[in-house]
## 1
Amino acid sequence: METLNILIAGCGDVGCELARQLLLTNGFRVWGLRRTIDQLPEGVSAIPGDLSDPDRLGAWPETIDYVLYTAAADGHSPELYQKAYVTGLMNVINHLKKKNIQPRHLFFTSSTSVYHQCNGEWVDEGSDCHPQTFAGQTLLEAEKVLFAGNLPATSVRFGGIYGPGRNRLIKRVLEQKGCAKEPAVYSNRIHRDDCAGILKHLIQMSISGQMPDPVYIGVDCQPAPMHDVLHWIATQYGVELNDDHPAPPRSSKRCSNHKILDTGYQFKYPDYKAGYLKQKTMSEKCSFRPPR
């Protein structure tokens, strides 16, 4: 069996989970590029490097079959977003050209923040994108870099990612902070394991001869009002919420995942209830406890 080289550039939380899933399948050698290589999963070939510096991208294999750009910004500021998503991606594409490496496909992890809709509208891959936030604007700029690179490329626009180490809503619930039921603020979520699962699925589509489309939305099957999500989590922890708090800042829209479902992808956690039940099990093994 042919062994395929997979480079995960910016191999952080989602990238490491993708690496673990790929290594469970024969036929892949996974290379992980990041600054702190001691955090890479066992079995990943480490490439110490800094995506923001074109002269510090490390030593790459001569042949790379698939590149996945899964970097995350070090903080929430225009400068850090530009550095992580635009500059870093540009450096990777330029390095591929400089080394004359022609991958079969380049995948980029984007965000549903590229959509400007904020009144509960349904959006899909064909919806207009006129983001009003610097985050959405920067990610849309990065997608333009991606598609200008003259490589087969796909952007996966993920919703709110949760999972191990991503306990923001659980922490909020344990602080007893709810939000108003009306007006409804819709939330689109996806478990980290399904982020990695979608990326692996798209790689396998390409291997089987099916060309992935340029854009997919990566969210679970149930957009839901934030009020409902918080109160359902609170029920699992036996917590009473005070709804005299603003909803977490986000654009209220409902994102459709029909396109990725139509490719045959099956979600491990098809809705927030399935995912947060898993989170509860994990949190009970850690330090999260509801107040007495």
## 2
Amino acid sequence: MKLSKNNYKKARDFILTNARMIERRLFQFHFENHGPDGVFHAVYAYRNSDGGFGHGMEPDTASPESQPLFSIMALETLDEAGLLTKDRILDDFMPYFESITTDKGGIPWMFRPLGDYPCEDHFKTVKEWAALSTTAPLLGILEKYNIEIPWMKKAEEFVWQEIERIKEKHVFCHLCVPRRLQFLSHTKSKNKAERALKDLKKWILTEGVLCNDKSDVGWGLYGKPHSLCYAPAPESILNPIFSQEMIDSDLDELIKRQKEDGRWDTWYGLSEGMKLEWAGIQTLWTLKTLKNYNRIEM
């Protein structure tokens, strides 16, 4: 089964008429041969004077305040579009990250908003301690671009300690796992990384992690991952742990779940506008995944 040309156009039109500028620019970069400059400007529109990124880069908040997670998302998006360089990482990102590094050597996931802005409840109660899900991908990016700075030493000690402490917790979160993989893929500690990756593969396949019930409306969303959440491309490091039958079945289900207006939906969002933004993110992710597996009639 492939996404038909007509349904691909519906998805394209949904993104271009409803998604945020960042998803529109990424769509044009991935599907319409546009250069990466538009992605760069869309990402930097979220940047604050303190060097961090805010303004609802994850659309669960209307707060303009900088958040560590949003700054990681900005870094990941620039990497996706081939826009990162050593100088850009060191000049535009590391001063902010170093300024929020905790005594443990890691950076927090989120900060509770200081201003009175609409946001999801998890922003208001977030624990502001150092987190694996932000520190690990930052280290992975630094290693990927062959950067060596003093900050990395204590941060890496923190990450290995957290991997050992957390173990299988959060493997259901298909947003956290790729960030752990970013570190494991690029760290120079190859033997430790191989052991950690072996454990990760085992935990993901544990009964109850994957959502095998395709009648579940939350299938593929937070807490209910399927195989493609962990292996969005054939070359994904976790792809080999899933059977081809499972991958194909999940691709077919993805195609079937497209809505009449072209979107792939989520349950996220405080408002109708934020729900559209989340749908834009989900629709772009789905199209990229289907393209990676050659499941779109172009």
## 3
Amino acid sequence: MDGCFTIPDWRSQFARLEGAYAPSTMKSYYADVQVFVDWCAGEGQPPFPADVATVCAFLEAQGKEKAASTVRRRLYAIRKAHRLLRLPDPTQDEDINLSLRRVRRARPIRPKQAKGLTRDFLDAFIAGEPDTPWGLRNKAMLSLGYELLSRRSELVALKTDDIEVRPDGTLQVIVRRSKADPFGQGRLAFTSRATATRIADWLAWRGPDISPLFCPIYQDHPIDRDLSTTTVKRLIKTAATRAGLDPSVVGEFSGHSLRVGAAQDLLKKGFDTAAIMRAGGWKSVNVLSRYLEQAEHNVWA
């Protein structure tokens, strides 16, 4: 009991979604609904079913601390919870839209864009990697991630069977699942010979009996499990530091920098938006446009 009301077992209802949504989405659902439940407890209001006024108050309170995108995501979680519990959904009311507009207008924050890991950075980062098993893996990951324009989740999800050597010495790679492709239809991508060579060098050391294309290394031995997505971010920042970049510049790189930098380079080489979207698997022109902003002012340089 919380006050004079009983909270339904919403977690067991969300368990019905397992397998239908990505693990990251499920993690966000659980976290966001819990924030709402805790907030309602503090306000003495029932979270399920919530009324329109309660949800509006929650959204505007969250907007004082969180980005508008986070507030919107939490609204979606509240909506999903009510639907799973088969309760009246308060989130479709017009007052909800007005509250979201207030949140956006009160904190007009421009989305922060990761620094692009463009070709000049890529070459410097690869050159700085040591002649160790970790260096072999990191060179291959940097090179492949750049040429696939991959998200960090896509890069660590690749399996050895997802790559195929072509007659010309390059690689064909199938990116089987991504944020924009939740049902795993996949997209084909291709690499240079240089990247194919780096992958071959890594696999020659790693051996044939490992399922993930890239794996952890423990005491000079490969471990048959996936890397975490944070490994990509750490790899990039470490490579940037090793390349001698100023700490303030190092801090601008993220796990998304490979994708951003490759897209910017393609634009400067004259590829149009449609070609870049195909290469990177983008579905939204607006998202790609943010990636390309920093490159566009250099097109005529």
## 4
Amino acid sequence: MKHHLPAGSLAEGDWSLRLTPERAGWAYSGLRVLELAPGGSHTFATGEEEMVVLPLSGEGVGVECDGASFELVGRCDVFSGVTDFAYVPRDAEVSVSAPGGARIALPSARCNRRLTARYGPAEKVPVELRGTGQCSREVHNFAAAGVFDADKLIAVEVLTPGGNWSSYPPHKHDEDRPGEECPLEEVYYFEVGEGPAGPGVAYQRVYGTADRPIDVLAEVRSGDVVTIPHGWHGPSMAVPGYDLYYLNVMAGPSPDRAWLIRDDPAHGWIRDIWDDQSVDPRLPMTSTGGER
């Protein structure tokens, strides 16, 4: 199965990107991207999936679900700031509108419980500075486990300054090891900053174990997706001169919604040197950071 899915390859109907669990070859995680022209709107059913309505670009996005209405302030683009968002449950009809136009991501997870539709304010999103030196990056934990309530869905945004390595050291979460690791299917959706000559590129690495091989080294561009069903993943490499954004979407079979990872033992030692280095001075890129 192909794990690097270039921009446009997942377009379907009104969706510029529609990655279902079936298309990914797994059971839980999904992602949609909707592009609305100024004054545009779209209504859809969530089915068996809970979702987050997350503006990637565009301001004044309206969301209606279960008789509730939410007005999302949004943002100019993914590099300009943390955004507010709306959570919409499974078995719901949702309408989104954008008077000024918008590009909207809908990270999703097939789930069991039906929770309440609700608003997530930008000011409540924890912003974390993770790593130091050339491993420095900024994480927006908007739907992280323990931060925002959901049944299965875990989703975060990561910003990496040009020249830095993110998702490093390589790690995995594909085995049930109580207290150490839990199985989570993961989607990476990328947007890459532009330079004077136009769009930039970045790189994503995924590699497996002897029993479960996988081998991905992808040059990624804005709108590309990489699916990670198992294996060590990282680094996500932001090439010099081009900042990198990615949206992580995760879900799995565990009844405990948790993000438990295990570093590749060959490279986990890199964490030991972080205390002796400073966080990249270009961070935070969008707002005040927290602990690494």
